[in-house]
């Protein structure tokens, strides 16, 4: 029996770039293969999924139907594969492209708050949930 979804995406609903990507994926998800969880929602509790808000804010997280977690660029590969773009995803696994994507994503994840104009004071990974 096929699981009800391929991957659950944990996204920051307060991040304009993250929301753009999420809206695109929702439009592409014609077969309802993706689950979407907004970690910025007022009723979201990171403890309920066994993570801290700092962990979830530090990089993209996805949870598979069997409970395993994937992070970073691998989440995007699985999301795009689930909506039918497996051929494109295959290219992202080629050694040089994979290294470039990983480096680019690391930079984005590290500076995401600053890049999206949400940086305050020391620009550490913080959120309204942690109170920092």
Strand order of the largest sheet: 2-1-3-4
Mean pLDDT: 88
Approximately how much beta-strand content do the residues carry? 5-15%
Return the string of H and E elements.
EHEHEEHHH
Total number of distinct structural domains: 1
Count of helical stretches: 5
The N- to C-terminal Cα distance equals 44 Å
Number of strands: 4
Low-confidence stretches: 124-132
Main β-sheet, in a few words? 4 strands, mixed
Assembly category = single chain
Give the helix proportion (percent range): 40-55%
**CA-based shape:** globular
| Structural class estimated from helices and strands | alpha+beta
Can you tell me about this structure?
With 132 residues, the protein is an alpha+beta fold. It has one domain. Helices cover 42% and strands 12% of the residues. The protein contains 5 helices and 4 strands, in the order βαβαββααα. The protein has a 4-stranded mixed β-sheet, with helices on one face. Strand 3 (61-63) and strand 4 form a beta hairpin. The chain starts with 6 loop residues before the first strand and ends in a 17-residue tail after the last helix.
């Amino acid at each position: 029996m096929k699981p009800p979804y391929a991957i659950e995406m944990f996204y920051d609903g307060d991040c304009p770039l993250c929301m753009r990507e999420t809206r695109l994926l929702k439009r592409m998800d014609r077969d309802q293969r993706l689950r979407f969880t907004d970690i910025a929602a007022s009723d979201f509790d990171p403890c309920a999924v066994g993570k801290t808000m700092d962990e979830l804010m530090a990089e993209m997280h996805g949870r598979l139907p069997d409970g395993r977690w994937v992070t970073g660029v691998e989440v995007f590969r699985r999301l795009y594969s689930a909506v039918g773009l497996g051929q494109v995803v295959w290219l992202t696994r080629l050694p040089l492209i994979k290294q470039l994507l990983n480096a680019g994503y690391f930079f984005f994840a590290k500076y995401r708050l600053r890049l999206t104009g949400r940086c305050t004071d020391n620009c550490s990974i913080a959120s309204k949930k942690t109170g920092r």
